Amino acid sequence: MNLENIKSIVCSGDPNWELLLLSEIAKDKAAIPKILNMLNEERLSNQLLITELNFQLSRAHVALVEPKVNKDQFVQNEIKKFYQTGKISHCFANMD
Questions:
Q1: 3-state secondary structure of 67
Q2: Is the dihedral of CA 17, 20, 24, 29 positive or negative?
Q3: Which helix (H) or strand (E) holds 49?
């Protein structure tokens, strides 16, 4: 698959971009395994992110229920570090 061609097709604004895209992908005999691999990588990445988000939410819950485990705002600082990784964005932007 020629990714530059695919990018130009997607960004072209052509009303038939989907057909053009399929034509470009069809040129590569190994397209389906490549696409399946990309989807699998995305699934794995999403699973890791969901696990990390669940961990941060659990951490926040524990800090709310048991404030003594949150000495020196440890939990807030750890959650802030997580947002600073750039994996997700904060829904309330510009909080700093």
A1: helix
A2: positive
A3: helix 31-65
**DSSP string covering 3-46:** HHHHHHHHHS--TTHHHHHHHHHHT-TTHHHHHHHHHHHHHHHH
Burial 4-24, CB ≥16 within 10 A → b, else e? eeeeebeeeeeeeeeebbeeb
24 contacts 1 by C-beta, under 8 angstroms:
yes
Per-residue model confidence as pLDDT tens digits over 37-77 = 999 999 999 999 999 999 999 999 999 999 888 888 999 99
What is the pTM for the complete model shown? 0.68
